[in-house]
Design a protein that fits this description.
single chain; mainly beta; 20-stranded antiparallel beta barrel; 1 helix; about 60% strand; globular
């Protein structure tokens, strides 16, 4: 059974990448009945033994301090972003009914979702926040007799066709290929699994250019322990990133290598956990020369 984190939203995030649920992907599960998480980032110093905060700063410019709020069922219902002085920047809100996402507000837009009688999403509508009555069809979804998502159509604000996605599945019922048809070309992603139906490889192709990206996955006792991404141009690997994870799914090492096989960045993360195995303090070292601390305040129901 998945931990407490929003199961429906994880399903969307993993299987339907066209739906964006926030500014930053949640990369590890959250355990326990969490009410809210407040994250605050700092630049740090490291004396070889201890990390100490030296001021407000962020590892990546868009990773603002933020507060995530959850309902008692584990659905993310609000996310609020703040600047370094804790001034409000913007927020995203999610409305659920019977565990089905009904609407979300994201920056200048509001999204609404329609479902069939069995709870499968059939349409995503979008409108400016200033005119929530002017809903336009953004995505339309279709399924086969096995209730597998087989087709997705994307439209622009004028109703014009943007893309057509076609999904294929293997004999075990797992997604094996996604094809994306655009007016000016076609792309597709292929998925391969091991005998335990764990995802082993994900490859992204452009129909004209060929293989563009490849991601390989490794597991230990059913848990993801590493992920290896390669950026490819003309059949040559130009850049790569290897990520390693702890037993709770948190990244402990991220190694970026450039086209000359030289290390560009090596990020090493260490964590302090609470009694529910959620981290409450993360320290980050990049190339042993830049250091950051992220602190979390977590409240539970």
């Amino acid at each position: 059974m998945l931990p407490f984190v929003t199961r429906l939203m994880l399903l969307f995030a993993l299987c339907n990448t066209f739906l964006s649920f926030g500014q930053e992907e949640m990369t590890a599960p959250i355990f326990g009945k969490v009410k809210f998480i407040f994250e605050e980032s700092f630049e740090a110093d490291f004396d070889g033994v201890t990390y100490s905060k030296i001021g407000k700063n962020r590892q990546v410019s868009w990773m603002n301090d933020n507060k995530m709020e959850f309902d008692k069922r584990g659905h993310l219902i609000k996310r609020t972003f703040y600047d370094d002085a804790r001034n409000y920047i913007h927020s995203e809100e999610f409305v659920f009914s019977d565990s089905l996402l009904q609407s979300k507000s994201h920056l200048s837009f509001i999204f609404s979702y329609l479902y069939d009688s069995t709870g499968k999403i059939v349409a995503e509508l979008v409108a400016p926040n200033s005119d929530s009555l002017a809903m336009k069809l953004k995505h339309r979804f279709a399924y086969n007799e096995k209730n597998q998502l087989t087709e997705v159509w994307e439209f622009d604000f004028n109703g014009g066709h943007v893309s057509h996605q076609i999904n294929e599945y293997n004999t075990q019922g797992f997604l094996s290929k996604e094809t994306f048809e655009y007016q000016d070309g076609k792309e597709y992603i292929q998925y391969r699994y091991d005998t335990l139906n764990q995802l082993l490889k994900k490859e992204w192709y452009d129909a004209q250019v060929g293989l563009m990206e490849r991601t390989s996955y490794a597991y230990l006792n059913g848990k993801l322990v590493s992920e290896f991404w390669e950026g490819i141009n003309k059949n040559k690997v130009e850049t790569s990133t290897k990520s390693e994870f702890d037993e709770y799914g948190n990244a402990i090492s991220v190694l970026d290598v450039n086209s000359k096989r030289q290390i560009h960045d090596h990020e090493v993360n260490t964590y302090v956990f609470d009694s529910d195995h959620n981290w409450i303090r993360k320290t980050t070292s990049i190339n042993n020369s830049r250091f950051y601390i992220v602190e979390r305040r977590i409240a539970y129901y």
